[in-house]
Amino acid sequence: MSEAPDYTAAMDWLDQIKWDRDGLVPVIAQEQGSGDILMFAWMNRDALARTAEIGEAVYWSRSRQKLWHKGEESGHTQQVHGIRLDCDNDVVLLTITQHGHEPGIACHTGRHSCFFQKLENGQWSTVEPVLKDPASIYK
To answer: Quick one: which H or E segment has residue 135?
Structure first.
């Protein structure tokens, strides 16, 4: 196992991000092994700094207005292998391993990915199964 890079050595990397007017940046979580896009969320400066520090995804919950360590309720944590910034410095991509259930559950609906709906013939179709009943995940 390789050692994770030290993103916290100099915090000026956070200043290079184009935060929106609310101090947030959109974040995409991509599964390292499969390349699947598992979820989209938001981070503020503290969430991104904490993610880099601990090597697990920490997001900003807009609905609860607080930091949200992915998996704090469900146990479905995200181990971060890499952090990338797009060409405009306004979108972050996390390369992660989803933990907590095999295959990993990233979505609060109990599915592997939050992107489980596909447009087919002018209608949204569910194309990924529920792996675990959300009622048994969130108590």
So the answer is: helix 134-137
Structural domains of the chain, count: 1
| Eight-class DSSP state of 56 | B
- CA-angle at 31, arms to 14 and 119, nearest 5°: 105
pLDDT (tens digit, 9 = 90+) per residue, 46-82? 999 999 999 999 999 999 999 999 999 888 999 999 9
The answer to whether 79 touches 56, Cβ cutoff 8 Å, is yes
For 69-85, what is the HEC assignment? ECCCCCCCCEEEEEEEE
Residue 52: count of CB within 10 angstroms of its CB: 20
pTM, 2 dp: 0.86
Give the domain extent around 71.
18-137
105-137 burial string, b = 16+ CB within 10 Å, else e?
bbbebbbbbbbbeeeeeeeeeeebeebeeeeeb
Which CATH number belongs to the domain containing residue 51 in this structure? 3.10.20.810
